[in-house]
UniProtKB/TrEMBL annotation:
Protein name, entry field: ISL3 family transposase
Organism classification: Bacteria, Pseudomonadati, Bacteroidota, Cytophagia, Cytophagales
A Pfam family hit: DDE_Tnp_ISL3
The Transposase IS204/IS1001/IS1096/IS1165 DDE domain, residue ranges: 156-390
Domain Transposase IS204/IS1001/IS1096/IS1165 helix-turn-helix: 90-140
InterPro entries referenced in this protein's UniProt entry, alphabetically: Transpos_ISL3 (IPR047951), Transposase_DDE (IPR002560), Transposase_HTH (IPR032877)
Length: 406
């Protein structure tokens, strides 16, 4: 068995394709392996035995390295004349049309990306300009996303995430039952909800099929959901509501700080849970709460509000929340009165939590993964690349790379 036959077996080539030449040539600083592929003469013929080959077009593909040597495949691909007298290029089994890489090379690139290696790093490792790796990634990601089953969805979680420092946002929609991202789109306005609804309808999930949507208290999200998912119950996200309450607590601390310097550097003492604090931190916090009655009263209200999230009866939850808002009025703490006004304004969406018990905690976890990927890549200038990376990280997609048969 000669070297051509060995490489033909290694490449998994079947008739009419064969390796006709193997050579090492000088490349960029080292020798490169170049394999020339040819085809069996007389294979492309019509019923009369006449050749249908019109002409041949020379192509070159980057293949996986042979040990430390870069490897390239060369082939003069025949263009054949069809029965309709049209000239068409023959498809080759080792590469997809329009790609300068073999399928195995593309699959290896995707494997590195799936193992959370940044695309720029992948390009550096395998010696290819990163934009070409992005083209590979976006091609296969696009196929997997297009094939994804996003029908029969009834509960959505919607939140925004940033694509880079500043105010560049991507709105992400999650199927709450499967914990997977189903769609992501640029911006964070009401129009993003329309884009999500339009996409879901193309996949078989009608607007009226959505029964619950979990969002933050963004007016644009509220408007978009009410317009596009009119059958859905809005559930305001627990973590965003708690964040607003924590802001009220911190605003009061800042006000008290002006007169009581002892509060300097104590911001997180009033925001953390006890389980995340040291003994000394708890003692310091308790001393401040005892010394400053208004701060102590506010802190007790903050802790009491957490009981709301564990109430399972909608009637009890509404009664508790009404009682809590009355206590805020009696305490006469402006920062908390502002929060109580927000609760009253968004009463149904907040109390719906006790009925449906859904929150964007799933999305918060997904967002952490997204931000980690963004940090590894040092941000994303191209939003389409960022959106596709979100699908890879959190879309639970299936990739079926069409390896040629061996």
């Amino acid at each position: 068995m000669n070297s051509e036959q060995i490489f033909q077996l290694a490449l998994g080539l079947n008739e009419p394709w064969c390796v006709s030449k193997v050579e090492f040539l000088e490349g960029e600083g080292q020798k490169e392996l170049h394999l020339t592929i040819d085809y069996k003469i007389g294979f492309f013929v019509d019923k009369t035995g006449k050749s249908t080959v019109h002409d041949r077009v020379e192509r070159k593909w980057r293949h996986q390295n042979f040990f430390e040597h870069k490897c390239y495949l060369h082939c003069k691909i025949p263009r054949v004349r069809t029965l309709e007298n049209k000239v068409e290029q023959v498809s080759v089994p080792w590469a997809r049309e329009g790609s300068g890489f073999t399928l195995l090379f593309e699959a290896f690139s995707m494997l590195l990306i799936e193992q959370e290696m940044p695309v720029n790093k992948v390009g550096k490792v395998i010696g290819v300009y990163p934009n070409r790796i992005w083209n590979i990634f976006n091609y296969w990601l696009g196929i997997a996303y297009s094939d994804a089953d996003h029908g029969n969805i009834s509960t959505l979680g919607i939140d925004e995430t940033s694509s880079k420092k500043g105010h560049d946002y991507i709105t992400v929609a999650v199927d709450m039952k499967t914990s997977r991202v189903v769609h992501a789109t640029e911006g964070k306005g009401a129009d993003t909800i329309t884009k999500i609804a339009d996409y879901l309808e193309t996949k078989g999930t009608l607007r009226e099929s959505i029964k619950q949507v979990c969002i933050d208290l963004s007016p644009s999200f509220i408007s978009g959901v009410e317009s596009e998912f009119s059958n859905a119950q809005i559930v305001f996200d627990r973590y965003h509501v708690k964040a607003l309450l924590n802001k009220s607590m911190d605003d009061l601390r800042k006000q008290e700080l002006k007169a009581h310097l002892m509060l300097k550097g104590q911001k997180y003492l009033f925001l953390k849970n006890d389980k995340n604090m040291t003994v000394s931190q708890k003692i310091q916090r308790d001393m401040s709460l005892e010394a400053l009655p208004r701060l102590g009263a506010a802190y007790r209200l903050k802790i009491l509000f957490d009981d709301f999230w564990s109430i399972k009866s909608p009637q009890e939850a509404q009664g508790f929340l009404a009682y809590w808002c009355d206590m805020v009025k009696e305490a006469m703490i402006p920062q908390f009165e502002k929060f109580a006004d927000t609760v009253m304004k968004h009463w149904k969406g907040i109390t719906n939590y006790s009925k449906y018990h859904i929150s964007n905690g799933i999305l918060e976890g997904t967002n952490s993964k997204i931000q980690l990927a963004k940090a590894r890549a040092r941000g994303y200038r191209n939003k389409n690349n960022f959106i596709n990376m979100i699908y890879l990280i959190a879309g639970k997609l299936n990739f079926n790379y069409p390896f040629y048969s061996t």
